[in-house]
Design the sequence.
């Protein structure tokens, strides 16, 4: 199998040459052979990567896909020299420019980290130092790897910020991470990664939490770096649609093994392995006919009329002059029993603020909101931060019932077990803590928690954005089943237009706090009227699909 993988990789480099990438006749820039990674932090050693093989030349763009726990990130971190725990064993070979990285000294590895090999992490807010200005952080690799003067470092940092297409680089240079949007922070991470002109850039889920327009911009930026600087890119993602649009070759991993690799179009069109076929089948699609249901006669379970709200912001810092920043301009809509209403828009357009107003977490608004029984459940975007880490799943699920006055332990447990069955979780998870669950299991617990008091309306705020495609498909299927079984109405907030098309009966497009277009998925996706809707569809690559 290892020989087949190396052969496939070599074939992939040939395919890349046909796309205009210069290749060297000499040995490849990067060659990983028989990489095994083993943890020894339990009584029985656990292998997380088995016999990983990869060949990359200058200018390659290779994607690694697979479910959580498949070994994608571990393999990339080994390449970057970021796996140095004492309870970890690494065997095999990682040859970069002829140098063996697995056995070289820490001092030798540090000469490559940030200069020849750079990495963009998934979450820039946790990767950037909150107390250091952006300029200082972008310059860090220059201070370590070059002898440039402070003035020259500043000039190079401003160049990198400009290359990352950040507006007003001089202004961004003086700002702190919390003063930037998510997309801007991700661009800062890219600027810091390219400031030393690396030969290989590892991008670990760099667009997971970003909306489609920012995703498209980040993708275009990566392609620009590859095209102009010949930077090789190792792109790790669970979004197979993005991998297909960006990469020339793809590596498919499952349970630590490479199950398939080769030319990206060949893999997507003619996958050889059953696991690859399952991954591709789980990608949400806008193809085919979609059944349209008429909810005109169904009872209205939520109605918003002319809702407006905003936040008080201090200009120039905490003690600056306060002004009102308007978020929601004039939002009106109705939601009927059994209907799934999709809400799409870029980050900062007001989607989550509207959700907070609807569930009562934000009370300073004008306009009218009517919810007949005032019983609304909410599923938050990040299940890990919305579940109490110090309590068991059983305690967490019983808490809404205790608050509502259900005193009988037997009744509480019975309703918890019923809900666990609905979201397809095993009873033995009741004694587990959130940190012991997978991402998909945590999200199912969040759905169960939101439904414990049997609401008629469920608000789901980006509930599948950080999940693998197979787990995403499972969670979406559960939501569809619950809608049918419980007669739920769902307000589904998402930046993933394919997921919205698959799940929703009606779609609203929000821009700068206003609903600019509303209609059935067929109307919105195939005959939209507002230019902003077209921009979103184009950024998501859906117009090309259609």
Sequence:
């Amino acid at each position: 199998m290892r020989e087949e993988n190396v052969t496939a990789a070599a074939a992939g480099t040939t395919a890349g040459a046909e796309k205009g990438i210069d290749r060297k006749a000499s040995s490849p820039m990067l060659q990983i052979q028989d990489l095994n990674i083993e943890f020894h932090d339990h009584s029985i050693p656990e292998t997380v990567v088995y016999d990983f093989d990869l060949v990359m030349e200058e200018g390659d763009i290779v994607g690694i896909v697979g479910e959580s726990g498949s070994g994608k990130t571990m393999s990339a971190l080994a390449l970057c020299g970021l796996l140095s725990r004492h309870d970890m064993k690494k065997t095999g070979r990682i040859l970069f420019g002829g140098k063996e990285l697995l056995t070289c000294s820490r001092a030798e590895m540090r000469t490559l980290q940030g200069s020849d090999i750079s990495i963009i992490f998934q979450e820039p807010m946790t990767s950037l130092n909150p107390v250091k200005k952006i300029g200082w952080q972008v310059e860090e690799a220059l201070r370590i790897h070059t002898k440039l003067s402070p003035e020259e470092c500043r000039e190079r940092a401003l160049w990198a910020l400009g290359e990352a297409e950040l507006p007003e680089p001089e202004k961004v240079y003086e700002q702190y991470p919390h003063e930037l949007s998510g997309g801007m922070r991700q661009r800062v991470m890219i600027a810091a990664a390219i400031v030393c002109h690396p030969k290989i850039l590892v991008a670990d889920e760099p667009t997971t939490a970003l909306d489609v327009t920012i995703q498209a911009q980040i993708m275009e930026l990566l392609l620009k770096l590859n095209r102009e600087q010949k930077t090789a890119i190792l792109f790790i993602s669970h979004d197979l649609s993005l991998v297909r649009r960006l990469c020339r070759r793809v590596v498919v991993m499952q349970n630590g093994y490479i199950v398939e690799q080769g030319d990206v179009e060949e893999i997507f069109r003619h996958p050889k392995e059953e696991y690859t076929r399952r991954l591709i089948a789980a990608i949400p699609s806008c193809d085919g006919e979609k059944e349209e249901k008429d909810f005109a006669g169904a009872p209205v379970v939520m109605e918003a009329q002319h809702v407006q709200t905003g936040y008080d912001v201090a200009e120039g810092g905490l003690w600056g002059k306060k002004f009102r920043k308007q978020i929601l301009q004039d939002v009106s809509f109705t939601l009927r029993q059994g209907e799934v209403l999709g809400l799409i828009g870029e980050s900062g357009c007001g989607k989550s603020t509207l959700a907070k107003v609807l569930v009562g977490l934000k009370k300073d608004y004008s306009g009218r909101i009517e919810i007949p029984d005032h019983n609304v459940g909410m599923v938050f975007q990040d299940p890990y931060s919305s579940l109490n880490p110090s309590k068991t799943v059983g305690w967490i699920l019983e808490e809404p019932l205790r608050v509502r006055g259900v005193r009988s332990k037997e009744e509480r447990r019975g309703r918890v077990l019923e809900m666990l069955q609905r979201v397809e979780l095993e009873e033995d998870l009741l004694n587990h803590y959130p940190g012991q669950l997978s991402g998909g299991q945590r999200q199912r617990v969040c759905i169960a928690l939101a439904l414990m008091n049997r609401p008629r309306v469920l608000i789901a705020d980006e509930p599948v954005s950080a999940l693998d495609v197979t787990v995403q498909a499972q969670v979406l299927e559960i939501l569809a089943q619950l809608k049918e079984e419980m007669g739920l109405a769902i307000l589904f907030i998402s930046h993933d237009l394919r997921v919205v098309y698959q799940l929703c009966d009606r779609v609203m497009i929000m821009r700068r706090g206003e609903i600019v277009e509303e209609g059935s998925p067929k109307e919105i996706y195939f005959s939209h009227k507002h230019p902003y809707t077209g921009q979103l569809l184009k950024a998501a690559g859906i117009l090309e699909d259609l």
Remarks:
- The chain is about 40% helix and 25% strand.
- The first strand starts at residue 30 and ends at 39.
